[in-house]
Amino acid sequence: MEKTLLDYLQRILTARVYDVAIESPLEMAPKLSTRLSNQIWLKREDTQPVFSFKLRGAYNKMSRLSSAELKRGVVCASAGNHAQGVALSAQRLGCRAVIVMPVTTPKLKSDAVRTLGGEIVFHGESYSDAHSHAAEIAQRDHLVFVHPFDDPDVIAGQGTIGMEILRQHQHPIHSVFVAIGGGGLISGVAAYIKAVRPEVRVIGVQMADSDAMVRSVKAGKRVPLSDVGLFSDGTAVKYVGEETFRITRELVDDFVVVNTDAVCAAIKDAFEDTRSILEPAGAIGIAGMKKYIAEHQIQGESMIAITCGANMNFDRLRFVAERAEAGEDREALFAVTIPETKGSFKQLCETVGQRRITEFCYRLSGQDDAHVLVGLATENRSDSEDITRAFASRGFECVNLVNDELSKEHVRYMVGGRSPSIQNERIYRFEFPERPGVLIRFLSCMNPDWNISLFHYRNHGADYGRILVGIQVQQFEQTAFDDFVTELGYPCVEETQNPAYQLFLR
């Protein structure tokens, strides 16, 4: 590893990135610093010309190609930020760039690539599909393939961020928090920091539903994921790189895994300090830093989070705003059962007391009991436990839905839709690609004898849609239905036994 450090130190010191990239600012985040009782600094890679760090590695790789290779042109696979980096680099170097993008890519990102002169080829529904097709094009048309992360020159380009951090902050640093997708960014940053100031801790952060690197390091070998969550599309990688895995497992000090709510809260944190709107991948470092500080009870230290991207679809802001409150422990959601008797509603309100109500949904559901969905403003996570106990002390049965995805994504918008007469209903949460024809495919694959009894969809401005579907299936058709779900191939979770569904929709 010592030889590796020396090799990457030389590569990073001689990297050619500043023809296209800026030395991004390292800025204090005053509100976060006060709230977390530490000195919090943000390395603002979201201020790059393509609003992401990716152009560093792409340009460093492409600028080292021979004139003959540049004349042939390059090809890459990407759903966004790497594509823009390659397209801008090709524009500066005067070469052809073919960009293979999944058909689910948001128009914002494909338009940005097209504006920079990239030739877009849409193929497949995932990065993996696009990657395979890009490799075929490279071989067929003799183009140079520019990998998004698993290439020493790409890694070295990203490593210039670590070089800038140490130059910009020459005082003690406790930790640097870095988002991980395929591992190119953290590999480069860790290589430089550990070569120059090995006492600085490098902490990797991944999404709970896209944690390929964390699993691989624990297993001691690269572990592929069958599915990845798409909320943080910039880090949604099923299989980390061979070189990035080797570097990360040796140099990264620790890892943090965060969820969607925590990232939404981090986007809000960054906005309040910078007035910039980060994309989910760009805010993962902040989310991981907050969780790490809370878990280790750290105070009075200097900590740095790399804000690595700001290519955010405007339509996604509604979803982010809704989930940020839960991510900050400022909202808790409960299913409360009260007797259908006089005075029960008043007792419920008395139990809530002076707390701010964020949501209240009720509908008569029977002669004896009523189920109420209650959203309340909270100060911290322990508040929800106190509220649960308060409801119980009044004799109200209460289910805490703080961590229930079905409730947060669907049920809270559907309360009042109970239908006790429906028989043999199974409930699934699906993630569908956000493109025309997907629903038709779903219906075409489904047995025409199965009846759709519930359907809920809300557009979140992402490249995928979150769908809640109820289907009436007889017991003897169980195997056929399971085969249908498998053949469909979309990520899904069965929620038939979820208490929120049982209380409010069944």
CATH topology description of the largest domain: Rossmann fold
- Low-confidence parts: none
CATH class descriptor of the largest domain:
Alpha Beta
Classify the beta-strand content into a percent band.
15-25%
- Judging by the overall fold, what is the CATH architecture of the largest domain? 3-Layer(aba) Sandwich
Rg (CA only):
25 Å
Mean pLDDT: 89
Shape: globular
Derived from helix and strand composition plus strand pairing, the structural class reads alpha/beta
Give the % helix: 40-55%
Total strands = 18
**Strand order, biggest sheet?**
1-2-10-7-8-9
Q: Could you give the distance between the termini? A: 58 Å
How many separate structural domains?
A: 4
Count of DSSP H/I helices: 20
Keywords: Amino-acid biosynthesis, Branched-chain amino acid biosynthesis, Isoleucine biosynthesis, Lyase, Pyridoxal phosphate, Repeat
EC number: 4.3.1.19
Cofactor: pyridoxal 5'-phosphate
Protein name: L-threonine dehydratase
